[in-house]
Specification:
Distance between the termini: 44 Å
Strand order of the largest sheet: 4-3-5-6
Helix content: 40-55%
Number of strands: 10
Structural class: alpha/beta
Order of helices and strands: HEEEHEHEHEHHHHEHEHHHEHEH
Largest sheet: 4 strands, parallel
Shape: globular
CATH architecture of the largest domain: 3-Layer(aba) Sandwich
Number of domains: 2
Length: about 350
C-alpha cells in the first residue's frame, strides 16, 4: 500500500503460525549443493531495536506476541507472559538461534525465565535500558547488541524506519476512526519484530483496507498489551475505539536510520524510565489523542500493577474515567471482565454520573 492507505490486516493466528514455524539448521543446501547460511532467528523478551537485529542480518521473533494465542498453561510461573514463552522455547515448540534478554527496563520476571532458556543451551545477550535515559549508556548497549548479532549494515535501518513511518500512519487512521481497534493494534504491536521479516510486515501493511468504524468513545489502553486475544475486538464491539495503545505506540515511535539515531530514540523508551517521565509522556498523549476514558491493563504478579494508583491519579487529574483490568493466563476475555467492560461502557454513555 501507499503510506496513506489503510486497513484490514491478515488474520493474526496465521501471522503467529508463520513466526513460530520451525527454522531447521543454520546451513542448508543451495543451488548445486552449495551450503548457504540462512538468517538466524533471534528471540526477544521485550522491546529490542529491530533496526539493529535486521541490520545485523538476523530475523527477530518477539516471544510475547506468541502468548495471547497460546493455550499452554505453565506449571511454574509468576507472570504468564514470560512463563508461556519460556515453556514454548524449552519444549522446542518454537525454535530460536539466540535470545536477547531485556535485563533492565520494563520487565523483571522475564529475567529468570530467560536465564533458564540460556542455561538450557541457547546463547543469550542481556540488553539494558538506562533508568535515567542516558543516551551515552544507550549507545553502548546498542553497540554491544550489534557485537552479539554481527556487523550491522545501516542501510537496512532505512527500510525499518520507513515501515515504522507507515505504521504510524495506520495509528493516525485508527485515531480518526478509519481503522478498527483490533486491526490497528495488530500492526502496531507487530512492529516489535516486523512479523519475522520486513517483507512480511510490508505485506501486512499492503493488505490493510480503510474501513469506516462505528464508535461512541475514544479509549486509551494503558500498560502492557492485553493477554486476552479478543480484547480489542470486544472493546470495539462495545463502542469503545482504542485510539491510543501505550506500549504498541512505543514500538512504532522509536526508530533511527543509524546506530546513533537508534540509541538516541530508544533512550526515551518510557516504560524503562522513571515513572515521572512516563506520566509526563502519557499526559501529553492522552490530551493529544483527545481520550475520553482509559483502561489500564496489567498482569497478576507484575510490578507494573503497583503503578495503577499513579495512572489512576493522572486520569483523575485530567478528568478521564478510568478502569483497571488485571489478567493472568492467556485466552479469551473472561465473562467477569466482559461484564465490567459492559458496565464501564454504559456509564460512559450515560455521561459517567
Amino acid at each position: 500500500m501507499q503510506p496513506q492507505d489503510g486497513v484490514t490486516v491478515a488474520e493474526h493466528p496465521e501471522a503467529l503460525e508463520l513466526r513460530a514455524e520451525s527454522v531447521g539448521e543454520r546451513w542448508h543446501s543451495g543451488a548445486a549443493g552449495v551450503s548457504v547460511r540462512r538468517m538466524e532467528r533471534i528471540g526477544i523478551t521485550a522491546l529490542v531495536p529491530p533496526e539493529v537485529v535486521y541490520a545485523c542480518g538476523c530475523s527477530a521473533l518477539d516471544l510475547n506476541n506468541l502468548v495471547p494465542e497460546s493455550r499452554l498453561v505453565p506449571g511454574d510461573k509468576l507472570c504468564a507472559w514470560s512463563a508461556v514463552w519460556r515453556e514454548l522455547v524449552l519444549r522446542r515448540e518454537v525454535e530460536i538461534d539466540g535470545l536477547v534478554v531485556v535485563a533492565g527496563g520494563d520487565c523483571y520476571t522475564s529475567l529468570v525465565d530467560a536465564q533458564r532458556i540460556e542455561l538450557a543451551g541457547v546463547r543469550a545477550h542481556h540488553f539494558i535500558y538506562p533508568f535515567s535515559g542516558d543516551r551515552r549508556f544507550m549507545r553502548e548497549q546498542v553497540e554491544a547488541l550489534a557485537e552479539f548479532l554481527g556487523e550491522p549494515e545501516e542501510g537496512v535501518m532505512d527500510e525499518v524506519a520507513e515501515l515504522k513511518a507507515m505504521a504510524m500512519q495506520v495509528h493516525r487512521m485508527r485515531a480518526r476512526g478509519e481503522v478498527g481497534s483490533e486491526q490497528g493494534f495488530r500492526i502496531e504491536v507487530s512492529a516489535s519484530d516486523l512479523m519475522g521479516s520486513p517483507e512480511r510486515y510490508r505485506e501486512a501493511l499492503a493488505a490493510l483496507e480503510e474501513a469506516e468504524v462505528s464508535w461512541e468513545h475514544r479509549i486509551a489502553l494503558l500498560g502492557v498489551p492485553p493477554i486476552y486475544s479478543d480484547f480489542h475486538a470486544l472493546l470495539q464491539e462495545m463502542g469503545m475505539q482504542v485510539v491510543f495503545d501505550e506500549m504498541p505506540y512505543e514500538f512504532i515511535r522509536h526508530t533511527g536510520r543509524s546506530m546513533a539515531e537508534v540509541a538516541r530514540s530508544y533512550a526515551g523508551y518510557t516504560f524503562a524510565l522513571h515513572i515521572r517521565r512516563r506520566l509526563e509522556f502519557l499526559r501529553k498523549q492522552l490530551r493529544r489523542h483527545r481520550v475520553e476514558a482509559a483502561v489500564h491493563f496489567h498482569q497478576y504478579a507484575c510490578h507494573h500493577r503497583l503503578e495503577d494508583p499513579l495512572l489512576r491519579g493522572l486520569c483523575e487529574e485530567l478528568g478521564i474515567p478510568y478502569l483497571s483490568v488485571e489478567a493472568d493466563l492467556p485466552g479469551r476475555t473472561p465473562e467477569q471482565v466482559r461484564l465490567r467492560l459492559e458496565a464501564f461502557a454504559e456509564r460512559l454513555s450515560e455521561g459517567w454520573a
